[in-house]
């Protein structure tokens, strides 16, 4: 151990007397520790929320979605579908026809999002964990079925057990005057409800139906779709497949990953995380200002010791390092304590769910957290920078003592 570090350690850990400066050092250490712990926990919660949203989207949305750049629909010819299916990494391709429609059940009605999907949609097995009641069934023995969201069931009081009461879907015909009194103004289809699913509130108005039913209802041609949903093989490089699909599909359509479809939400989470991190950084800075006052008072108290050190041959750089090390000890001990407590809290929350969401309708019971080493590293760098900034001036003042 070199001399500046040894002297700084003696100043900090001396138990011979507990002066006001000693208690101020402890207060500074606690302030840095609490700020560090809060920063680790809050950043981990934001990471958990981001990961939770990805898991929610993965339950309903495809890995890749091909949609038209202009308009609501485009022509998916057999040649195009064959070319896309032959792209390396593609596991399953599902044509989709989706639009808003009106649903009626007995005397109740509500606006829905009707999503017509190909028969291979159920092979994706995305809804397996989201089914609340009934079966995952879209077509059997010539009968068309619908899988509805929990919100639709609540709005229309639908019972999947009642197979005799159909769900009626209405969609306005093109070129017809919109009027509820005109029976020819709407295309109509009837479906038997086979099951109910629940994922999250943003999907509470969806009704899944066979693709042929949706095309007839919307007035689409045989090969017309609103999008093509693609599932990839596990471990596939998404960026590489995305470029290959875009080249195969042409310039009239847009290939987007699941993250691309929800980029606004992820951007909002990132901005909130950044603003909260900046706020907590200022709190740590405010706590570190106590280090400035602690070192300034320590310089005044140790003027006689500093003169003796100069008389013994100490240089200004050595004296400066003593007080910089003193400030570093205060900050790093507090930061390390806060880091350990923050990581421990996150691990306990992740494993045992200590703090609940407090919402009955929440899809999870406790706040999601996810630790990232980048956040821990960023926190350590931030504390070091703040320590240097707050300790430099008192250390320089000690070095200039006459």
TrEMBL record:
It is a multi-pass membrane protein. Keywords: Cell membrane, Membrane, Transmembrane, Transmembrane helix. GO terms for biological process: lipoprotein localization to outer membrane. Residues 25-247 form the MacB-like periplasmic core domain. The chain crosses the membrane at residues 20-46, 274-300, 321-345, 376-395. One of its GO terms (cellular component) is plasma membrane protein complex. The keyword Cell membrane applies. It is found in: Cell membrane. InterPro entries: ABC3_permease_C (IPR003838), Lipoprotein-release_system (IPR051447), MacB_PCD (IPR025857). It comes from the Bacteria. Residues 278-401 form the ABC3 transporter permease C-terminal domain. Pfam families: FtsX, MacB_PCD. Belongs to the ABC-4 integral membrane protein family. LolC/E subfamily. This is ABC transporter permease. It comes from Spirosoma validum. The lineage of its organism: Bacteria, Pseudomonadati, Bacteroidota, Cytophagia, Cytophagales.
């Amino acid at each position: 151990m070199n001399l500046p570090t040894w002297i700084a350690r003696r100043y900090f850990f001396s138990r011979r007397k507990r002066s006001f400066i000693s208690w101020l050092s402890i207060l500074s250490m606690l302030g840095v520790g609490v700020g560090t712990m809060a920063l680790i926990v809050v950043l981990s919660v934001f990471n958990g929320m981001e990961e939770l949203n990805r898991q929610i989207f993965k339950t309903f949305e495809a890995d890749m979605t091909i949609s038209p750049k202009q308009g609501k629909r485009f022509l998916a010819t057999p040649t195009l579908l064959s070319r896309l299916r032959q792209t390396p990494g593609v596991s399953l391709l599902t044509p989709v026809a989706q639009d808003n429609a009106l649903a009626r059940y007995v005397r109740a009605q509500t606006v829905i999002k009707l999503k017509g999907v190909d028969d291979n949609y159920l092979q994706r097995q995305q809804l397996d964990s989201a089914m609340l009641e009934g079966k995952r069934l879209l077509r059997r023995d010539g009968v068309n079925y619908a899988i509805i969201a929990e919100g639709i069931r609540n709005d229309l009081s639908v019972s999947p057990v009642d197979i005799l009461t159909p769900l009626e879907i209405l969609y306005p015909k093109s070129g017809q005057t919109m009027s509820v009194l005109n029976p020819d103004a709407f295309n109509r289809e009837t479906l038997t409800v086979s099951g109910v699913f629940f994922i999250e509130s943003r999907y509470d108005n969806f009704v899944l139906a066979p693709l042929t039913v949706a095309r007839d209802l919307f007035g689409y041609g045989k090969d017309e779709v609103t999008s093509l949903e693609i599932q990839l093989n596990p471990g596939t490089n998404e960026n590489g497949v995305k470029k290959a699909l875009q080249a195969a599909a042409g310039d009239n359509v847009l290939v987007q990953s699941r993250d691309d479809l929800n980029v606004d939400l992820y951007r909002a989470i990132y901005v909130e995380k950044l603003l909260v991190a900046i706020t907590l950084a200022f709190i740590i800075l405010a706590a570190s200002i106590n280090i400035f006052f602690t070192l300034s008072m320590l310089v005044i108290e140790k003027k006689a010791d500093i003169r003796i050190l100069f008389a013994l041959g100490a240089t200004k750089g050595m004296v400066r390092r003593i007080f910089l090390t003193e400030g570093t000890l205060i900050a790093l001990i507090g930061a390390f304590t806060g880091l350990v407590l923050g990581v421990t809290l996150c691990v306990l929350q992740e494993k045992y769910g200590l703090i609940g969401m407090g919402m009955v309708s929440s899809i999870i019971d406790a706040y999601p957290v996810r630790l990232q080493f980048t956040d821990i590293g960023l926190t350590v760098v931030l504390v070091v920078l703040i320590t240097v900034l707050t300790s430099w001036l008192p250390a320089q003042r000690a070095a200039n003592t006459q």
